Every structure is written in C-alpha cells, then in structure tokens.
Please model this.
Amino acid sequence: MTFVSLSRTRRSHPRAVILGTGSELPAQVVTNAALEKLVDTSDEWITTRTGIKERRILEEGKGNADMAYRASVRALKDAGLEAKDVEAIIMGTVTPDYPFPSSACVLEDMLGVRKAFSFDVNAACCGFLNALAIADSFIRTGRIRTALVVGSDALSRLLNWKDRGTCILFGDGAGAVVLGASHDGAHGILSTRLRTDGSYVKTLYVPAGGSLKPASLESVKRNEHTIAMNGKEVFKVAVRSMEEISREALDEAEVKVDEVSLVIPHQANLRIITALAGRLKVPMTKVMVNVDRYGNTSAASVPVALDEARREGRIRPGDIVLLNAFGAGFAWGAAVIRF
Ligand code: COA
Model:
C-alpha cells in the first residue's frame, strides 16, 4: 500500500524543462592586439595558450544587472512568457551591482516582476549550474512552476589590467534560461551534480573587499581587489574535475556518453576544453566553443554558449546535451538535459 502511493507521488513529480534562452554580450570588443598595448603579451601567445582572440567589456556606468536584464528579456520572449509569469529568479554571479542586495533583486525590479523570490548564488564560473540545480529542485518538488535562471558576470571589474597572467583571460556577458514544469517524463533536466573543494580558496580569488579585508587605501594600492590566480593549478584540477562530474551526471541520468549530441563546457580556455573532450572521448565536432570570441565570461559562459548553440540550430528536439563548469572555490558541476 505504502509502496503504491509512494511510487505514484514520484511519477507525478514534474521535471524542469527549458522553455527559452537568451544572452547578452556588451558591444565593446577588446582584441588581443589591444591587450598587446597594455601588457607584455602577444596575440600569438594568447591564441596558442588559451584560444581566445577577443572578449567583450561592459561599458562604464553599467552594472551586471543591465546585461542580465537584456538576456532575460530575450529568454522570456523565446519562451513565450511574460515577466509576471516568473516565480523565482536565481542568478549565478560574483560581480553583483552592489555588495547587497542581490543582483537578482535588481533584475527583478528591472523586469517588473512582483510576486517572485529572487537571490544570487556565488559559485564563480560554476554559478549558472548551481542556480540551475537549485531551480530544478524547486520545480521538481512542485514549489514553483517557472523560474528565470541567469548567469551574469562583469569580471572586467575585477581585473588588474597590468597582470598579463589574468587580464587576457576574462570577458563580460550574461545568459538566461526560462524553466518550466513538465509532466511528460521524457524531456527536461535529467540530472544535476555539484561539488566544491574549499581547500583551493586562495588558488583563485579576490583577496580584499570582503569582511576579512574591507576596502582601504592600502588594499587598493596593493591591487587586492582584483583576481589573484595560480593558473597552472586551476588548469590541472579543472580538467580532471569536469571529467569526473560529467561522468557522474551522465550515470545519474542513465545516459551513455555516445548518446550526448552536444557538450557545452565552461568556456575558460580552449586547451581545457579539448583536454576535457579527449578524456570524455567526445569528438570536438560535438563540443560547443565560443571562447575565441568572448573569453571566460564566468557564470555567463555556459548559458551564453547554450543560447548560441540553440540559435545556430545545434540542438534539436530529443537531443541530449551535457553542460559542465568549473570555477573558483573550487566549485564545479554538470547537468544532463534532454530537449
Ligand atoms: N603573455 C605572454 N606571456 C605570458 C602571459 C601572457 N599573457 N601570461 C603568462 N606568460 C608567461 C609567464 O610569465 C611564463 O613566463 P616564464 O616562463 O618566463 O616564467 C610563461 O608565459 C608560461 O607561463 P605559464 O603560467 O606556465 O603558462 P601556461 O601555459 O600555464 O598558461 C594560463 C597560463 C593562465 C593561460 C593557463 O595556466 C590557464 O589557462 N589556466 C587556467 C586559468 C583559468 O581558466 N582560470 C579561470 C578558471 S574558471
């Protein structure tokens, strides 16, 4: 008796489905040639070490939520929904407009959403996947039926433009996904997996500006409000971790790697992406790459690439797509979605 009622409940659980996607990249393009004028680097070095040719930089006077707003309006239009239909806004970001309140609340106001709950998630470059997993859980449990999930970052605001080891890597952008609830059982988010390892906090971080070391004249002089990173260590752990978590997400979804139509990895570095594809034994023809045009846009990277892949016709109904990301924390994650 108990077994029957439990299994009924389980079957009636909805699944989160992607109803629409949108993205926004700032108009200002910064090429590798432009960076050659700022630091001792070359287009050749940046291209061969990272695959990046150019990135976009958010204009002065604009904040993260401005990009998130544009991406969200496009995603809502694509979904055929209005802002008032949104029940939750969850935004992955480490560059909110203000220390508080959240950029999700700023976005909520811009969109005119009034009956939702909204919050930011800080998981750096993995922020979108964390936000997606949280929204998926709310939808699966029946708590909400629609969510706007955003990854938006303006890492240009955290860069030391004299540090050639970091300033060449990052760019700004936003991506948004509208999730709905479906009972058809076939489509939607099949699995999500998240992980962190806090022993790597200082391998990739911004040393000052938080409660431990608030802003001071000294912290500004010492450039402690900009990204400090051990790139080699990040590289090594990123490839291994994204492979592992992708395999876990595929296992949980009961999907074989050959059944995946498209992998949309975090766009940090072309060498990381190709190494990951090699370890997963996925041909590069099945891997979405736009790091050459945008650099590493942090939490925006996966949803921007997802939106581009859909608009380029690279995702058809029934396709299985694997998302994965890795970032500061370290925090990493993966999701498997059937469209
Ligand atoms: N232009 C020219 N030379 C540069 C340079 C630049 N922009 N940045 C570093 N170099 C130099 C270094 O100073 C070093 O010189 P040296 O041998 O005289 O000391 C040399 O190039 C090699 O540096 P190294 O750091 O060993 O290069 P690398 O092959 O590891 O590439 C990264 C550096 C940053 C591109 C690479 O480690 C990386 O992509 N890591 C991951 C970073 C990342 O993705 N972070 C975000 C994760 S979400």
Q: What stands out?
A: Residues 41, 45-46, 49-50, 125, 164-165, 168-169, 229, 231-232, 234-235, 268-269, 296, 326-327 surround coenzyme A (CB under 6 Å). The radius of gyration is 19 Å. Residues 1-10 have pLDDT under 50 and may be disordered. The first strand starts at residue 15 and ends at 24.
